[in-house]
Design a protein that fits this description.
The structure is a single chain. This protein is of the alpha/beta class and 330 residues long. It has a single domain, classed as UDP-N-acetylmuramoyl-L-alanine:D-glutamate ligase, CATH 3.40.1190. The protein has 10 helices and 13 strands. The strands form 2 sheets. A 9-stranded mixed β-sheet has the order 5-4-1-8-9-10-11-12-13, with helices on both faces. It has a 4-stranded mixed β-sheet with strand order 3-2-6-7. A hairpin with a 2-residue loop joins strand 12 and strand 13. 48% of the residues are buried.
Length: 330
């Protein structure tokens, strides 16, 4: 297997998607499980697009975890970073959806957020050799809620800095993963200071920084140097960005939405895939930067047209055909 150019660290889990639109778990008659977890979604999407990616995370020694490992193997994601925990299960998340396809994370099937294997990723078991050959490290913030995984994230960041990897952080704010959500904001604000590229939803931008202006956020974080940037996604409103010394926006693509789960992860994968294809230096040209963000938006948009996160991800050929038929409006 080719050494991964991108390492994605964090959770892999089962999103149990409600088969019927519902406002509460009690209203759901049946569920369909889909493999998910933001970093795993990004790793799978990258692999499908043609960029070698590896996943680093912890699952349980259970059937649910075994099925996830099999899926990673089928897709072609490097699994050398996968750890197994004998005492804690693989995470399952209940996901509600409304008539428009928008989703709401509702619970963990009666368990506490801290009970699952992904909360116990061990820094000492991390395959450090993977960092020697990679170019990017992709991280979310959910693991910061758990002592062991937070320590593993800190170790991974140190390795990335040592080996010269670019760090891509997708905030992916999910209060239900935190035992004390009120404590999360300062922890996340400190964490995102270490990003080379920071991706936020428009709601996350307002929550963390009080603005949806990517340039203002970049200035706040002092990541306005070469080869860095901030990207803000806003669903049907499109996305905006500040990359190196210029800003821009991309309008949303017109698609028929079935399920928005994993759309942001598809966006991140499309962006990183293009950086691997074209080189970060392409961002210095405003037209190239807009093309790269348009590609990322197309990947995210296509992910919403089918159910599930990983199951819905497009191939490179599908993205190319989509962009040919739907030229970005800018």
């Amino acid at each position: 297997m080719t050494d991964p150019r991108v390492l994605c660290l964090g959770e892999i889990l089962w999103d149990c998607l409600a088969d019927q639109p519902a406002a509460s778990v009690a209203q759901v008659q049946s569920w369909t499980p889909y493999a998910g977890g933001a970093p795993a979604n990004v790793a799978c999407a990258l692999t499908k697009l043609g960029t070698a990616a590896g996943f680093i995370g912890c699952i349980g020694e259970d059937t649910a975890g075994e099925h996830l490992v099999e899926l990673l193997q089928i897709i072609g994601v490097d699994q050398r970073g996968v750890q197994r925990h004998a005492l804690h299960p693989t995470r399952k998340v209940e996901v509600l959806r409304n008539e428009q396809g928008d989703r709401q994370f509702a619970g963990f099937g009666g368990r506490q957020a801290t009970e699952f294997a992904d909360a116990f990723l061990q820094a000492a078991l991390m395959p450090e050799a993977l960092f020697a050959t990679a170019d990017f490290l992709v991280l979310g913030t959910l693991g910061l809620a758990y002592t062991d995984t937070a320590a593993a994230i800190a170790h991974a960041l140190a390795l990335a800095k040592q080996q010269g990897l670019k760090v891509v952080i997708d905030v992916n704010w999910r209060p239900m993963f935190w035992s004390e959500p009120a404590l999360a904001k300062p922890i996340i604000l400190d964490f995102v200071q270490q990003a080379d590229f920071l991706k936020l939803s428009i709601e996350e931008a307002a929550w963390l920084f009080g603005t949806d202006e990517a340039g203002v956020i970049a200035q706040t974080l002092n990541i306005q140097s070469v080869n860095t940037g901030v990207l803000i996604t806003a669903g049907e409103q499109g996305c905006s960005y500040y990359l190196q010394d210029h800003k821009g926006s991309v309008a949303a693509f017109p698609v028929e939405v079935e399920d928005t789960t994993g759309a942001g992860d598809g966006f991140v994968a499309g962006f990183v895939h293009q950086l691997c294809q074209q080189g970060i230096s392409a961002l210095s040209d405003p037209a190239s930067a807009q093309q790269i963000v348009s590609y990322a938006s197309a990947v995210g948009s296509l992910t919403t047209t089918r159910s599930g996160a990983i199951a819905a991800q497009p191939s490179a050929a599908e993205v190319q055909a989509f962009l040919y038929l739907n030229p970005p409006a800018g």
